[in-house]
Specification:
CATH architecture of the largest domain: Sandwich
Structural class: alpha+beta
Helix content: 40-55%
Distance between the termini: 87 Å
CATH superfamily of the largest domain: B-lactam Antibiotic, Isopenicillin N Synthase, Chain
CATH class of the largest domain: Mainly Beta
Strand content: 5-15%
Number of strands: 11
Number of domains: 2
Length: about 400
């Protein structure tokens, strides 16, 4: 009886590679079978075994072997690439496309790949692209067939759904920077039908625009920087706009009260604002401003404070090359056409023109917040403010 140690998987796998190099696939297959029997978790042996089976024309056996390899390491780029290639060669484009999709996620930089693997990767990208084109067309055909029966809002939601499942759009959720009220939907732009007062407010457009133009003719002294972070606070994405005249506002309502020094110059604007159902939070809201964005200025992606209220925009002065994005939806501003959106979803704005852009901006009540919730929310925030004021006084007293 021999006392020699049992061969390791490496002892067996290395001769298999030599047999492959010597163009002796039959011997290599036998050696690899032995390697796998010694260690069923030997990923390299399974991949080499699958590759040899494929080259010998045994596609089904190769697919079974590569599935064993992926059972050992489901994220194996080479395993996924080989499986997709086998399915591709069998004419199963949908299955190949799905596998290639995963392989592309785990693909290393092309510079790290040898030429044959680069070629296989290029094929994977081409097949996946065709798979997604075919898949997208099939989804839109299904939706289009039912579109005559859909309401505007139903069609919009399904369009977004198809864009998400086909990778054309991301899903953005409400992410309030301060106060997240549970159970409220994440809707980027709200449907106008939820706000029956909107047409009447839009009817004030010409009067509001006239007041704004008169104000601008006097200069912009009443406008102040929108972003005014105190010292010691991280500026992050606001570095370019902090205390800057490139994005300024003129306050019409602040901390729930009309700004007296500006009220006389904007009677029609304030009359229009009175038509809106605005949230009432002591010393916090409603807030209403004229927002002026100077040429070639971009407001970076950011999130609002609380999802218990929404934000209303009425575009007033909008040159070309201005835009606004909330989540996955981008819209151009149209003077006089209002919208309501959830500003706790990531949003950004830009003015790529050579002229000033001005909009009316204010908060409105979220229609999904009940009266009880609205009132108690206001009391809770008032209690927060009172608590912190008392805490500040106590700290100073120390």
């Amino acid at each position: 009886m021999s006392d020699a140690p049992a061969p390791t998987p490496l002892d067996v796998n290395t001769p298999a590679m030599r047999a492959i190099a010597a163009n002796d696939p039959g011997r290599a297959l036998e050696i690899l079978k032995r390697a796998i029997s010694l260690d069923p978790k030997n990923l390299g042996a399974w991949l080499n075994y699958a590759g040899l089976l494929r080259r010998s024309g045994q596609a089904d056996a190769a697919l079974d072997a590569v599935n064993h390899a992926l059972d050992v390491e489901p994220r194996s780029f080479h395993g996924l690439l080989m499986k997709g290639s086998i399915l591709d060669s069998q004419g199963d484009t949908p299955a190949a496309g799905r596998v290639y999709a995963v392989a592309l996620v785990f693909a290393p930089p092309e510079a790290e790949l040898d030429p044959p693997t680069r070629t296989a990767l290029a094929r994977a990208q081409a097949v996946y692209s065709k798979y997604m084109d075919d898949f997208t067309s099939a989804m839109w055909e299904t939706v289009e067939a039912k579109s005559p029966a859909a309401s505007r809002q139903e069609r919009k939601r399904f369009d977004h759904f198809v864009n998400v499942i086909t990778g054309k759009a991301k899903v953005f959720q409400s992410q309030p920077s301060d106060f997240h009220f549970p159970g409220l939907p994440s809707i980027e732009f709200y449907d106008d039908s939820l706000f029956p007062w909107m047409p009447e407010v839009e009817g004030f457009f010409e009067a509001i625009l006239d007041e704004v133009q008169q104000e601008l003719a006097r200069g912009q002294e009443a406008f102040s920087p929108y972003v005014q972070l105190p010292m010691g606070v991280p500026v992050d994405q606001w570095a370019d706009l902090n205390h800057s005249q490139t994005w300024t506002t003129l306050a019409l309502k602040s901390r729930g009260k009309v700004v007296a020094e500006n009220a006389d110059r904007f009677p029609k604007t304030l009359e229009a604002l009175d038509l809106l159902p605005q949230p009432v939070v002591p010393n916090r809201s409603p807030v209403a401003v004229l927002s002026a964005l100077k040429p070639h200025t971009r407001i970076p992606p950011h999130h609002g404070v609380s999802n218990t209220r929404l934000v209303f925009h009425l575009p007033l002065i909008v040159p070309d090359h201005c835009g606004f994005r909330v989540g996955s939806e981008t819209r151009p501003w149209v003077p006089g056409k209002a919208w309501v959106f959830d500003d706790t979803i990531e949003h950004e704005a830009w003015n790529n023109s050579d002229q000033l852009r001005v909009i009316l901006l204010t908060d409105v009540r979220n229609p999904y917040v009940t009266q009880y919730e609205h009132d108690l929310y206001g009391e809770v925030l008032a209690a927060i403010d009172e608590f912190h004021n008392e805490a500040a006084e106590y700290t100073e007293a120390l």
